[in-house]
Amino acid sequence: MPISGAVERMVDSVRLWRGAAAVLGTAAAALMVAALVARDAPDFAERPVIAVLRGAADRPAWSVRLARAAHQVAVDGLDPPAAPAGKAYQLWLVAPGGAAPQPLGLLPFSGRKILAETPANIRRLAGKGQLWVTLEPATGTLAEAPSGAPAFHAELGGPR
Length: 160
Prior knowledge:
The protein is of the alpha+beta class. 24% of the residues lie in helices and 34% in strands. The model has no long low-confidence stretch (mean pLDDT 84).
């Protein structure tokens, strides 16, 4: 049974094969990224506390643990004060050397919150610097810097 002209043209079509290769290549890359990202969740109970955020009265409000390989931070609410209506506490990373503060995420009022971070922020968290907590709109600030002075802070100690 001979191949029809239309099917023969389709088999010989460079555009068809280029498109198929692009689709398959994209799918393979997506599967590879998914395999690299899909890691077991770290057990933060076994991770050391890297910082305790304290307010003006030196009362602990949150503790911070770091899972470097997973690019995650766990923030535990120890006994933070309630935020005013329409406001939330936001965590910032301040690296030494005058770099602009980097937003890390909104903090929990109680319990534990896991924050996914960039590899660059994870490296900075493992080094020296400071963590600040500011009072921001309930959805967090869209600005590139905190809107007010830090209400809570902690020092980061360096290599662990």
